[in-house]
Amino acid sequence: MADVVEGGASSHDVQSLLSSPDRDFLIRNNGDQVKVDSLKGKKIGLYFSASWCGPCHRFTPILAEVYDELSPKGDLEIIFISADKDEGSFSGYFSKMPWLAIPFSDLDKRNSLDELFKVRGIPHLVILDGTGTVLTDSGVAIVREYGVEGHPFTPERIKELKDQEEATRINQSVTSLLVHGSRNFVVSSIGIRACVDFTPKLLEVYEKLKARGESFEIVQIPLDDDEASFNQSFGSMPWLSLPFKDKKCEKLVRYFKLSTLPTLVIIGQDGKTVHANVAETVEEHGITAYPFTPEKFAELAEIEKKREESQTLESILVSGDLDFVIGKDGTKIPVPDLVGKTVLLYFSAHWCPPCRAFLPVLTEAYEKIKAAGNALEVIFISSDKDQTAFDNYFAQMPWLALPFGDERKKSLSRKFKVRGIPMLVAIGPTGRTVTNKARDLIMDHGADAYPFTAEHLKKFEEKFKESIKGWPEKLKQPLHEEHELVPAQRRRYTCDGCDEEGEGWSYYCEECDFDLHPKCAVKEEKATENELDEDNEAAEEEAKKEGDAKEGWVCDGDVCRRA
Questions:
Q1: Which residues are within 8 A (CB) of 399 and not within 5 positions of it... i.e. 6 or more apart?
Q2: How far apart are CA 93 and CA 527, in angstroms?
Q3: To 5 degrees, how large is the angle CA 522–CA 524–CA 525?
Q4: Alpha helix (H) ranges present in 235-352?
Q5: What's the pLDDT tens digit per position in 496-546?
Q6: From CA 557, how far away is CA 543, in angstroms rounded?
Q7: What is the pTM assigned to this prediction?
Q8: Smallest Cα–Cα separation from 342: which of 416, 399, 426?
């Protein structure tokens, strides 16, 4: 039974919420029963999860750590509500949890809670206060972001934490960044050499700056899952580190909005952030990038601009005696023989599924462009693990390659900022970079994307604008309430409304990779939300009747959602 209380939050009678007509208890993983009425007055976390859900497996240990730290207070209980379809899977997964659960046998209650709290993705954590009022249905995000510091999980507490973070940002200092609680120290290394690619370059810069007497120090922020990995990555490095598993590490990840590794944040002598990440710059320019100030970056940008303007095919593909690429039979083709052509640098690997999917698309475009008499060449730059994998994959390609293990791959990857594969960089006939998004252009336009120049692509833009005249410029859809949908050129896609193939353009959300056929988008816009809700509920009910929940869910990133 749920009521709406002041402020719009739902309030529930815990006894009726968690009990059934023939059950007034919850269970522990050892089989013990705990009466539901013993939870009165406690905060309750309703944890919707499943053994088959990868994101759930990653989140459960985080939640368990928070639970273990808060449980001695006696005012919090978590209840596992399983989306598993067999008792063996439920029991195996529940055995790793220190909290309570709705019995697996009570399917009706598990389903009713699922519907009541509108669970559309797992892991999902709803937190109730001692009166049964919903504090938040964003418990997963709160626990991930704040951990035990989010307790008691009230809106006021979350606002307080956000205000503290903003105040820290405004009044940032080395102390505020690195000190946590009673721990006001950092640690030195203990003896094992790090082996990541970036570390040797950073070590070289560090040692040169120290030799020059510069006032410069590095503090490593360990993000390893186990202490052995921490010891290996920290090793005999001459710099300092926060202690392994220090709570401040998680805070700094949030504070600096960490999105990639390695990240090297520069803090000035006044304790303020000078730059959010200079790792790429250090790798490219080394000690020349010091002292990492805006003025220095402007100077480096000017150098880079002049370098780009003078770029030739030889300047990027020739390194000492390495002045060739190879053909199918291992024949060496001198780089100067390719001058004057449009050259595509294809970063790829056989072990990469998206690469294997893109290869036939690129091959088809390549053969059409060549058949039309255009001066085009592709050079495969491999990330394969061994020579055999390289040979087998290269055998499927009609173009050239860098030899396997060629040292030029590293410099090319760094120059073109290769962060993922497949990646396709277009170099024009003059040797200047045309675009590093040639893969997207091939996917959208096929062979028609040639020669990949901005002037050529304007033709597609004009044609596209003409084709969408009379259609709405943006739409808000009940099927995708998170963001507005806008017209976008899409070579091929599957409509998320009707599951049919589409091509040309769609109403699209880039952030969520959500497509709707134009006709579906307009049709759905006219539908009432009540009709959509009824359709969705019917579809979900049908999915439940069909059986295996795994077949009705799609896992992506940190959440598994209903398909």
A1: 346, 366, 377, 378, 379, 380
A2: 41
A3: 60
A4: 247-255, 279-285, 294-309, 313-317
A5: 888 888 877 888 888 888 888 888 887 655 543 444 444 445 444 443 433
A6: 23
A7: 0.53
A8: 426
Quote the CA–CA distance of 415 and 538 in Å, as a whole number.
Answer: 52
* Tens-digit pLDDT profile for residues 32-77: 999 999 998 999 999 999 998 888 988 999 899 899 988 888 889 9
The two three-digit tokens of residue 320, written as one number: 């000492």
Residue 231, helix vs strand vs coil: helix
Taking the C-alpha atoms of residue 254 and residue 267, their distance in angstroms, rounded to an integer, is: 16
- Spell out the residues 6+ positions from residue 58 whose beta carbon is closer than 8 angstroms to its own: 558
- The DSSP secondary structure of 356-387, one letter per residue, reads HHHHHHHHHHHHHHHHTT--EEEEEEE--SSH
**Whether 383 contacts 393, CB under 8 Å:** no
Q: Sheet containing 219-220: give its strands across.
A: 187-188, 240-241, 219-220
Cα-based distances in Å from 359 to 41, 347, 370, 389, 395: 60, 11, 16, 15, 12
Side chain identity at 358, as an amino acid letter?
A: F
Residue ranges of the chain whose pLDDT lies below 70: 1-9, 171-196, 491, 523-563
Positive or negative, the CA dihedral 431, 436, 442, 448 is negative
CA of residue 545 relative to chain centroid, distance: 33
Q: What is the dihedral of CA 476, 481, 486, 491, to 10 degrees?
A: -130
| Rounded distance between C-alpha atoms, residue 169 and residue 271, angstroms | 10
Across the beta sheet with 559-562, the strand order is 121-122, 559-562, 553-556
Question: Which region, left, alpha or beta, applies to residue 118 given φ > 0 means left and ψ of -120 to 50 means alpha?
Answer: left
In this structure, what token pair is assigned to residue 241? 């580190």
Q: How would DSSP label each residue in 417-436?
A: T--SSSEEEEE-TTS-EEES
C-alpha dihedral sign at 231, 234, 235, 240: negative
